[in-house]
Amino acid sequence: MTGILVVNAYLKSEKFDVLHRYLTAAAGESGIELRLRTNEEMLFSEETADFVLFWDKDVNCARLLENRGMAVFNSARAIALCDDKAKTYLALEGTVPQPKTLTAPLSFGAADYTVFIEQAAAQLGLPLVYKECYGSFGEQVYLCRTVEEIKAHLSGKPFLLQEYIREAAGEDVRIEVVGGKVAAAMKRRNPADFRSNITNGGTAQPYEPTAQEAALAVQACETLGLDFGGVDILDGRLVCEVNSNAHIINLKNVTGIDVAPLIFEHLKKSL
């Protein structure tokens, strides 16, 4: 069996190189020849394979490969829903519990959001969490204690405002789901920041999710159409974010569970 691992041409660092080598090696151990290609290369290539492992957020490229008849994991639709936090929230609304959230109305460039922000602050309470719709590793996520702080983060980019869950300050549970089943989980803590991300200085330990947490993670991935994904849960009861290509090496280092072989076995069964 052959596959193509598609990664971003413009993300170049040792962190990503290590991940790409790890995935390629894990595929080989599963009997799969996995060829590394960038999203840029695939735009001009007619190369095909039994499947594409799309470890990027270039939704247009993923859709292009689907249009060429290739099986893409995760699908372009699932990646798009996870990449935009507003789309994630709306897709999951009414399916799993989430923090109260208001997605900012569309504007074309810089706009005066004063009325929206004041009404959101009154409804959600202060402090609240400001999130740009696009971003990873806890970046572009801010805890705002006043209306003026919220305004200070406006950048012309799409954003949402979210209820601050005080009980979960600096702490969450990351659950990796593969093929509709919980594969591994870790609890992340950061006493110095309301964001628990390891990239921001958080620490993690192995964790056995409760039945409720496991059910929430599986339901979130199913609703979003993910074959595999990382689900962040707050206070044991609220889905905060869902990642279509979570950094599974951190999970392996913390839990000792290697998720990559599980992903490749699931892909083989799905073809």
Describe the structure.
Helices cover 36% and strands 25% of the residues. By secondary structure, it is of the alpha+beta class.
Radius of gyration: 19 Å
Number of helices: 10
The largest sheet is: 5 strands, antiparallel
Number of strand segments: 13
Summarize the amount of helix as a percent range. 25-40%
Taking the alpha carbons of the first and last residues, their distance comes to 10 Å
* Sheet with the most strands: spatial strand order: 11-10-9-12-13
Low-confidence stretches: none
Beta-sheet strand percentage?
25-35%
Overall mean pLDDT stands at 95
Written as H for each helix and E for each strand, in order along the chain, the element string is EHEHEHEHHEHEEHEEEEHEEHH
Shape call: globular
- Structural class estimated from helices and strands: alpha+beta
